[in-house]
Amino acid sequence: MAVPKKKTSKSRKGMRRAHDHVAKPTVIYCECGEPTVPHRVCASCGTYKGKQMLAVDNAE
Questions:
Q1: Mean pLDDT of all residues in the chain?
Q2: From the centroid of its chain, how far is CA 33?
């Protein structure tokens, strides 16, 4: 079984983990003002690029 000869320093450990972070999701705001994911139909109003794609019931 392989055993390390020396302790891994904090700097080397940090450099190895530099790309392991969680990516922050991109958020855009629809014309209705709700936050949505880019290139997707808005869940609240059903529009995409200014066109109505889904019929959404606003029974609130």
A1: 90
A2: 19
Token pair for 60: 């609130």
For residues 18 and 7, the answer to whether their CB atoms sit within 8 Å is no
Please give, one letter per residue, the 3-state secondary structure of 18-54: CCCCCCCCCCEECCCCCEECCCCCCCCCCEECCEECC
- How many whole angstroms separate alpha carbon 49 and alpha carbon 30? 9
pLDDT, one tens digit per residue, over 7-29 is 999 999 999 999 999 999 999 99
Q: Distance between CA 50 and CA 45 in Å, rounded?
A: 11
Could you give the CA distance from residue 42 to residue 36 in angstroms, rounded to a whole number?
A: 6
